[in-house]
Every structure is written in structure tokens, then in C-alpha cells.
Write a structure and sequence with these properties.
Blueprint (H helix, E strand, L loop, with lengths): L9 E5 L4 H12 L3 E6 L2 H9 L4 E5 L5 H14 L5 E4 L14 H11 L1 H16 L4 E6 L12 H21 L4 E8 L20 H9 L11 H12 L10 E4 L8
Parallel strand pairs: 1-2, 1-4, 2-3, 4-5, 5-6, 6-7
Helix pairs in contact: 1-8, 3-5, 4-6
Length: 258
């Protein structure tokens, strides 16, 4: 039997009922961590938790201070602490500046930016109280470090996550807590379906021409959720004990080209 390198660790993954969050939760559990599957969809969270050893499901709305505070209480009661926090929950939004309203902009930031802040604030006392290695990993996006048309609120929120990661790392380094972010590129998840229901962005002619035909994705394919779960595991592992304040782009090479 392979060594369980996260045995005894207690992890919280937000947005863990599907997609990238589910893949991260499954990878951490496979390495021995007890995982709280935190998601706004309790039924899906319970289904994932039921398929993993030592996992619990928790319903959370990361846009609500009270809901996130209740998550911290739940984690303290059910897991007995928190060593690892993965701030993954977010919504996709494709809105440009010409059609955007301030109300819509604030709604997206309240979830995609402030949600990670709420979760970090609420769970930080548990993380600081933990005795072993402690990790916070934020899921940003390539759209937080590159521009793309029709993506103002989403890109602004993910850009904020990038520097939130660096600033929190600077605050928590003295406690031995590492804080890093993964910035995924194009990943094949439910979120990649087009808003109008016409199909999947990875199947569109523009995606195939720009990112595949002309080689913008150096590896020649969209990513899979498991492609993100592996790097997240690394940042949570003892091998990353001296890595903090970093933004790791996991994008098949998109950011290496122009």
C-alpha cells in the first residue's frame, strides 16, 4: 500500500461537489486527508462525501458571512480542526464592460473574490491552532493574470485573488502557514459550457482555431480537473514547505506564448 502523505490532516475544499473542487477533494482524500466537501449544493456534496473515506459534507454559501461562519463551526465540530483550506468555489461570468452594471459587477466579486476572503477569515483560527503543517491554497485563473474579452467581473475577481494570496502569505508566514494559488487555464468542467446552452467552449471553432490549430495551448488540449488536483496536492504536501506567496499557472503552456 502506498504511503498516505496527508494522513491525519484535515482539509476543507469549497466548491467541492463537482469539477475542479471535486478532483481536489478526491486527491487529498487519496493521500489520507479527512476532507470537508463544502458546497452550496448539499445533495451533490453528500454524494461526493459518501464516496470518500473520512469525508463529511457541508452546505455553504460563500457569499454569506453567516453561512461561512457556520462552516467553520461545523468543521471544528466534525473534523476537529483544519490544516488545509482550498478556496475553490466560484461562478463563471462572461460580461464585458459595455454591458456590465455595477450591481452585476459587485455580485460576481462578492462570490469570486470575497468568498475566499470570508472562508479564510472564518477558518483561520482553526488553521492557526493546528499543530502540523498548515496550508491555504486559492484557486485563481489565467484570466486573473491575462486579459480576455467579455470577462471584466470574473477577471477582476481572479486578479484580486492573485494579490490576496501574496498579501495573506506575507501576513501568515510568521506562523509557518503557507499561502499559494493555482491559476488554471482552460479546464474541461461543467463551468466551461457556454451560457446560452449551445455547447462547450472547447468545441467551438474559435477555441479550436486559436488555442489548438495555432498552438496557443502548447500541450494541444484542454485541461482536466485532475490536472489541477495534482499541483494543489503538491502545495499541500511537505514537499512545498518552503513555497509561499506563489501563483502557479497550470494552463498547458498558454501563458508561455503570445
Amino acid at each position: 500500500m502506498s504511503e498516505k502523505r496527508l494522513a491525519g490532516r484535515k482539509a476543507v475544499v469549497t466548491g467541492a461537489a463537482r469539477g475542479i473542487g471535486e478532483a481536489i477533494a478526491r486527491r487529498l482524500a487519496s493521500e489520507g486527508a479527512s476532507v470537508a466537501i463544502a458546497d452550496i449544493d448539499l445533495a451533490e456534496a453528500e454524494a461526493v462525501a459518501a464516496s470518500l473515506p473520512d469525508a463529511v459534507a457541508a452546505q455553504v454559501d460563500i457569499a454569506s458571512d453567516a453561512s461561512v461562519a457556520a462552516l467553520a463551526d461545523f468543521v471544528g465540530d466534525r473534523l476537529g480542526g483544519c490544516d488545509i483550506l482550498v478556496n475553490n468555489a466560484a461562478i463563471l461570468d462572461m460580461t464585458g464592460i459595455e454591458t456590465m452594471t455595477m450591481a452585476h459587477y459587485r455580485k460576481v466579486l462578492d462570490i469570486n473574490q470575497d468568498g475566499a476572503v470570508r472562508a479564510t477569515l472564518s477558518l483561520l483560527p482553526l488553521i492557526k491552532a493546528a499543530k502540523g503543517p498548515r496550508r491555504i491554497v486559492n484557486i485563481a485563473s489565467i484570466m486573473g493574470v491575462r486579459g480576455q474579452p467579455e470577462s471584466v467581473p470574473y477577471s477582476a475577481a481572479k486578479g484580486a485573488i492573485v494579490n490576496f494570496t501574496r498579501a495573506v502569505a506575507a501576513d501568515l508566514g510568521r506562523h509557518g502557514i503557507t499561502v499559494n494559488a493555482i491559476a488554471p487555464g482552460f479546464i474541461d468542467t461543467r463551468m466551461a459550457h457556454l451560457p446560452d446552452g449551445s455547447g462547450h467552449e472547447h468545441d467551438t471553432d474559435w477555441f479550436k482555431d486559436i488555442y489548438l490549430k495555432y498552438g496557443r495551448i502548447l500541450l494541444g488540449r484542454a485541461g482536466r480537473p485532475e490536472d489541477i488536483a495534482g499541483p494543489v496536492y503538491f502545495l499541500c504536501s511537505d514537499d512545498a514547505a518552503y513555497v509561499t506567496g506563489q501563483i502557479l499557472l497550470v494552463d498547458g503552456g498558454v501563458s508561455a506564448t503570445f
